What does this fold into?
Amino acid sequence: MSDKLLAVKDLKIGATVYPPGEKPHDIEIVHGVSFELEKGKVLGLIGESGAGKSTIGLASMAYGRGGVKITGGEVWVNGRDILQTGLGDIRALRGGEVTYVSQSAAASFNPAKQIMEQVTEAAILQGKFSRKESEARAIELFRKLGLPDPENIGSRYPHQVSGGQLQRCMTALALCPEPDLVVFDEPTTALDVTTQIDVLMAIKEAIRDTGVAALYITHDLAVVAQVSDDILVLKMGDMVEYGPVDQIINNPQEEYTQALVSVRSISHEEKEPTSEPVLTVQNITARYKGTNFDVLKNINVELHPGQTLAVVGESGSGKSTLARVITGLLPQTVGRVNFAGRDLSPDLPGRDMEDLRELQMIYQMADVAMNPRQTVGTIIGRPLELYFGLKGEAKHKRIVELLDEIEMGVEFIDRYPAELSGGQKQRVCIARALAAKPKLIICDEVTSALDPLVADGILKLLLDLQKVEDVAYLFITHDLATVKAIADSIAVMYQGEVVRYGGKTDVLSPPFDDYTDLLLSSVPEMKLGWLEEVIANRKMESAGN
Amino acid sequence: MRIPIAALVGLIFTFAYFFVAIFAPWIAPYGMAEVVSRDVWLPPSSEFLLGTDNLGRDLLSRMIYGGRTTIFIATAATILSFSTGSILGFLAAVLGGWADQAMSRFVDLIMSIPSLIFALVVLSVMPVTVPVLILVMGLLDSTRVYRLARAVAVDINVMDYVEAAKLRGEGRTWIIFREILPNALSPLVAEMGLRFIFMVLFVSTLSFLGLGVQPPEADWGGIVKENADGIVYGIGAALYPAVAIATLAISVNLVADWVLNRTTSLKGGRG
It folds into this structure.
């Protein structure tokens, strides 16, 4: 009935929810979404978590994950409604006509089988190619995707290649059976920025060369702008805006799309360093027990009261290890940490209550940073009890004050972490840190697990609180946009060393060293044609290769 | 809140057994060791609901008193094994290092000897009294609880909220009882049901072998032993305690299953 490759009409998807203390009931999570995709085109599905992007992506393979049911609408692939065809036909469809690339390649590959076996499996099972043909095809794809040693990489096991390479292997896996449509579900989200652009480029070229159509699911508008022809913006299972990429990026009509495009509205003026730093890290070198490799090499940084030092780097650069040394979880082998005018004992047991109180920490994953069996009141109240001996009414009053500071009401006091949203959880963690009246808070990737708009709110809150409480932040992140938004000074880390350090304006102005240049240029920009420009201009290969 | 049928049946039976055990002296029609008839192994009648046993005692009364003994010993031994096993297990997980190694290897050593044989050896050199029985059974079984508690706690110990507690300056007591214990509770409670059943079987086995509860004190394993000869003559007196042991085991299992299901479902750990 349609000459389009994929036509989704008024798709409705439902799921059963199990709210605490209530009867399980069905809700609708996707409310009538329609779109079309021609051969060789790429459609970007974009939205925040819970928007229904992945659910819609999987529905185009007639699949509902974990209790999710497709309750209405039509999904036409190659001229037939796949929601109506039998199981045998769907089996031929999945892994044959339509294939899928998931977010975490590391979790999706079978660790006990060689990559080649897994890449060719679907093509052979579907009877599209013989084993020999599939393997030749796989090697060709490995070459196209820019993997090193394409002839032999297939004989490796998944743990023997890097994350970025594995993600490209997964793309090869999806392309091997010569599908008509590939569903990419956040394929670069788990990767470092400098690795991300390589994978992105590889995917883009592979799509172009093979003429396959693709659904590209992501929460990052700048990324989707690089690879898509059309964009569909989703919010809570509703279509917000649907149009060509150029129009969505440069001339968004809906308010929600405009907010997504212009995210990171925060700006923060760099403050001049004051006389006495609150934290001085001197010549720190550290290694993990039982290894002979220094994870940190001769680190020197300073942080002034009421200011923010951003430590930027990719995974494995040692930025979280620096936090572990400062907090005393990993004693350094050389060097000293001076905090508020006194030298801190390298290990945790050697520090007194005052040291611990004045140095607080906020974690990346708020849901595992809070005990799931404690209420918000207990979580925020415990530091008050422990450090200031507050009890009863006085404690309650202070908890309410803190809740107020993080812009949450008193009604949250008896809730459990599971009953909070991601942003609220992170706010509670901030309140717990503030309860101790610290001089320094170490923020370890505190916004990287959050949606952009929510993350923005958290950053704003942190900046406001800094003004009120005069607390210093050591802000660990891989996200340069965040750094630009909140830092006073910046330390760029690469392979355990600080390669660039200074005030924000200095660090972010040329001339750059090669690594900082690579890092800065790899941050996706909301601009068409950005990807090609970066690849053409860069001076150094990314660490993931 | 709806209770599934299976769990309801389990709850009713478990409750009934515990009720009878607690109020045995008021429920039992005759005394525990009271010889009520000259005839042994009388069939069930209105006078003796389950008939009489090998010495002409009322079998129902012996069953009721026997249940009391069996359930009391099993409960006490379970409590002992859980308090020792889980606290030592948590401690090993939190301390780590050589303390963990020392405790874990000692437990391995004990577990490498079959517990029934270990118990038989210990009980043959010690006076067989109820406290000794509880102590031997509880401590032997605590090795299994230790293993589970340690495994669960090691997982919890690396969570960020435990690290946060350490950075906050919390002592070990807080970390064990406030951070780890509440999160380890659901697997432990489910295990508790299973360990309790194991204890019932263990004490019954010991009594059957003559090294458990000593006559004339009644217990289910002992009643099986006393009446086992009757089976040759087609007398089913030994089957009653066997059925009681089986139904108790199944009921407690059903309850434990339900508890585990309820506490680990999608309720954000509010259970």
Chain A is about 35% helix and 25% strand. Chain A has a mean pLDDT of 86. The interface with chain B takes residues 18, 20, 327-329, 348, 351, 353, 356-357, 360-361, 363, 365, 368-374, 382-383, 386, 416-419, 432, 436 of chain A (CB under 8 Å). The two ends of chain A are 46 Å apart (CA to CA).
